[in-house]
Amino acid sequence: MDSQRIKDDDEAVRAALTSLKTATGIPVTMYATLLPDNRLQITQWVGLRTPALQNIIIEPGSGVGGRVVTTRRPVGVSDYTRANIISHENDRAIQDEGLHSIVAVPVIVNREIRGVLYVGVHSPVRLGDKVIEEVTMTARTLEQDLAVNSALRRVEGGKPGAAKSGRVMNGAEWEQVRSTHSKLRMLANRVEDELLRKELEQLCDQMVSPVRVKQSTKLSARELDVLSCVALGHTNVEAAEEMGIGAETVKSYLRSVMRKLGAHTRYEAVNAARRIGALP
To answer: Which of 116, 161, 203, 234 is most buried, taking the most CB atoms under 10 A from its CB?
Structure first.
């Protein structure tokens, strides 16, 4: 299982590096895996001219990668050896490779940093916002691929037939999920308010690791009626008119449903109900 896990994840990383180089034209793309002791190790690369950076270990907080792990945000420098926002323990390796400008972006799965995605150039040019956006988009896609690999392994490791419990999304639907996840992640990276950023990150997490709901949860017919109205976009007043009950009664049903499903909003409750098969 472990060898297959490593193989699947390595293939996803390799595809991301190749795709990124093709999309940007940047000569060097690299991926550093976050080790258990919080160090980074560059484990995959495309376009390196020398072995100076191959399999190099990066100490916690060191250089561009260390800053990315510390801040959980993209970091870019246009002149590595002179940049004052990073430490310089790795200057010798960078100089031996001849890299000048570097952009690095965190790869986060289920709120845990799995690694860092890098691009770099050997000439003294500034990597602009479009390149940073492309690296960020690629990192978000890689996050989704790694999360899917993890989810599939959980299913395969569970009871026989577990994979048959839900409908498999088609390609177009899955691409829409990926696109939305990517846009949310990029939006979170631009938000300065820490609490709001965490909320956005939690939404991203839920797209690949939904809140677990006990299968034994039972909703009454009236509770399902209210949820069905909410799923159609009805307000409490409109739902009350549709069902022939008072708006306060609708609120009471909704509070009960959210408590049972562990949801914080009416729309979370609808999604949770769909996940346990209570709604289509």
So the answer is: 116
Average pLDDT in the chain: 82
Q: Which residue has the tokens 């690694």?
A: 115
Distance separating alpha carbons of residues 144 and 12, to the nearest angstrom: 10
| 250, 253, 259, 261: CA torsion to nearest 10 | -100
Residue listed under structure tokens 């956005």: 200
Q: What is the edge-to-edge ordering of all strands in the sheet holding 112-121?
A: 57-58, 40-46, 28-34, 112-121, 101-109, 75-77
How many other C-beta atoms can be found within 10 angstroms of the C-beta atom of residue 223? 20
Strands 101-109 and 112-121: antiparallel
Nearest residue to 28 via CA among 86, 72, 93, 83: 93
Half-sphere exposure of 168 (CA within 13 A, CB side): 9
Calpha distance 142→32 (Å, rounded):
13
Contact 128, 134 (CB under 8 A): no
pLDDT digits (tens, 9 = 90+) for 39-93: 999 999 999 999 999 999 999 999 999 999 999 999 999 999 999 999 999 999 9
Write down all domains in the chain, each with its CATH number in brackets: 2-150 (3.30.450.40), 221-275 (1.10.10.10)
Q: For residue 198, what are its two tokens?
A: 């965490």
DSSP class of residue 89 equals T
Q: Record the pTM.
A: 0.58
